[in-house]
Design goal:
Length: 270
């Protein structure tokens, strides 16, 4: 059977490396996307990191003293949205070409197809997950004046449990390719998030798997469920892989020149 996608089932990296790897994947599809299978990447973060959205001002969105005292990195994503504390979570990234059998539609359709897989995976674990219906305005970055934390509200096709956001996602498009990545909260600490961003958070608006399930989630089972769900949605088996040499080289260059720099992290300048 022809594979449906490449799966990169990875461990934990620092924030600059994670974002560089995601963007390196996107660059490859922007150059030659239609000839390649989509890629699904699963990963974690070490040390913990607070990530800012592409256009989110750094000043007023993080507490430098708290981050330094707790050993939490500050990074900036290539995608939009608001601040996310990456500590007790599993992160996914999907990268592929648009206008193909796997992802034939526009922005909302791409969100929808990925959301179908994630919702199905969570339901396999016994989570009453629901993809949020899109508003008439569609998927939009809340901009610099939106809520400070990503999990303060659920956007179109993000995953919620009983009205509380469990999984936040953001997307970037480059030529005929896209990157969508997002965080599945394993265990949430709203107080710690509020300290990290230096502003009040809204604990009543977020959910986490440990609370929903009543026990610590089995991350191995979660990873397997995500892979199986994408196999169903993308109509083909997963092909296990690693970053190609050119992808690894591009990721290393992006980390050094962009994601590990103050110009990008604080000021959003490449």
């Amino acid at each position: 059977m022809t594979p449906g996608f490449r799966i990169l089932d990875e461990g934990a990296f620092d924030g600059a490396t994670n974002m560089a790897r995601d963007e390196a994947l996107l660059d490859g599809y922007a150059e030659e996307g239609e000839a390649r299978l989509p890629t699904v990447r699963l990963y974690e973060w070490s040390p913990p990191a607070l990530s800012l959205g592409r256009r989110q001002p750094a000043i007023g969105s993080h507490d430098p003293s708290f981050l330094a005292s707790e050993g939490i990195d500050l990074v900036r994503r290539p995608t939009g949205g608001r601040a996310v504390l990456h500590e007790h979570e599993l992160t996914y990234a999907v990268v592929g070409a648009l206008g193909t059998a796997s992802f034939p539609g526009g922005v909302l359709d791409t969100y929808r197809r990925i959301s179908m897989a994630l919702e199905s995976a969570l339901r396999t674990l016994g989570v009453d997950a629901i993809a949020v219906s899109p508003s008439r305005e569609g998927v939009r970055d809340p901009g610099p004046f939106g809520p400070p934390a990503c999990f303060d509200r659920a956007g179109a096709y993000e995953i919620a449990v009983r009205g509380r956001k469990l999984l936040g996602s953001a997307q970037l498009r480059r030529r005929r390719a896209f990157l969508q990545h997002g965080s599945i909260l394993l265990r949430a600490d709203p107080r710690r998030l509020a300290q990290a961003i230096g502003l009040p958070a809204a604990p009543e608006r977020l959910a986490d798997l440990a609370t929903v399930l009543g026990r610590p989630p089995d991350t191995g089972r979660l990873r397997s469920a995500i892979v199986a769900a994408f196999e169903a949605v993308l109509e083909g088996p997963a092909a296990p892989g690693t970053l190609a040499d050119e992808e690894s080289e591009r990721a290393a260059a992006l980390r050094a020149a962009k994601y590990a720099t103050e110009a990008w992290t604080i000021h959003g300048r490449e």
